[in-house]
Design a protein that fits this description.
3-stranded antiparallel β-sheet, 17% strand, Regulatory_FmdB_Zinc_ribbon, Putative FmdB family regulatory protein
Length: 89
């Protein structure tokens, strides 16, 4: 069950309450009887791994960031070869 943080708008009393998702939000401060307000903070989420991409759920992908990849270039016999270094002047 999740833990919710509450703060009283009148006396400033703060506390945490463990409640089910289906439970109604608390409305009355247990200290002064004032109005309560839920507090929202940052959530500590970390994403580990290579990443999450739009294409991850598509069929046929074998890795993150997949998609159709171009075939690897092959070497050609007609590649230009570098000329031998010239003699010093």
């Amino acid at each position: 069950m999740p833990t919710y943080a509450y703060a009283c708008t009148q006396c400033g009393h703060r506390f945490d309450a463990v409640q089910s998702f289906s439970d109604a939000a608390l409305t009355e401060c247990p200290v002064c009887g004032g109005t309560l307000r839920k507090q929202y903070g940052s959530v500590g989420v970390t994403f580990n791994g290579s990443g999450f991409y739009r294409t991850d759920s598509r069929a046929g992908n074998s890795g993150a960031g997949g998609g159709a990849s171009a075939p690897a270039p092959t070497s050609s016999k007609s590649e230009a070869k570098s000329s031998p270094p010239s003699a010093g002047s």
